[in-house]
Amino acid sequence: MGDFVSSILVWIKSTHIQQQVKDVDYAGLFTNPWFLVPFIALIVYLLYKQAFRDLIIIIIFVALWWASGTDYMQTLTVDGILQMNKVLPVVFGGAGVLAFVIYMLFGRSD
Over the range 61-81, which residues count as b (16 or more CB within 10 Å of their CB) and which as e? Predict the structure, then answer.
């Protein structure tokens, strides 16, 4: 089992996924019609089907993606040292969002 996990980690490292995510041109992505048209179509479809739960979850993921690229997130570590006064709000905010998503998925009935 350990060999399987290590081979997956080696494969992920060889694909340079972390660097690709870091190098994404957000302005270019949200002005690219090949991304924007299907994304807007998905949003309109979810509004038409009144799937507000799914729409809210997509909005949360887009907001988390945006927030991960802010200057605040880049300064969570300084010289390899974790800044606890900056990490704690992120942890508690993430716990709150996670609790909200769990409530939406399992706590409510449609």
Answer: eeeeeeeeeeeeeeeeeeeee
Rg (CA), the chain: 18
* The pair of three-digit structure tokens given for residue 89, joined into one six-digit string: 């709000």
- The three-point CA angle 84-13-66 to 5° equals 50
Is residue 104 within 8 Å of 57, Cβ to Cβ? yes
pLDDT digits (tens, 9 = 90+) for 60-100: 998 988 888 788 888 888 888 888 888 888 999 999 999 99
Which DSSP state fits 76? S
Q: State pTM to two decimals.
A: 0.69
In DSSP terms, 77 is beta-bridged to 82
Tokens linked to 20: 């690709």
Sequence-distant (6+) residues with CB within 8 A of 47 are 55
